[in-house]
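From the pipeline queue, job 12 of 40. The input is one protein chain; the requested action is below.

Action: predict structure.
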Amino acid sequence: MSEPKKPVKTIRIQYYRSVIGHPKKHKIIVRSLGLTKLHQIVERPDHPAIRGMVAKVPHLVRILEDEPKS
């Protein structure tokens, strides 16, 4: 029998500053997070890859809910 799946931790990311005037790499990162419109909120799995993408553009996006690690 297979084990029941654990719920995947997620983070909510908000796109709050425009990429206009920023390097093309920043625009690609914001788009790859699934963000297309200002003030849009997306929910993504809490993985190191996603955290790393957010860390590259902290001036353009913000994490709304961050569950404490226990």
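Job complete. The longest helix spans residues 24-32.
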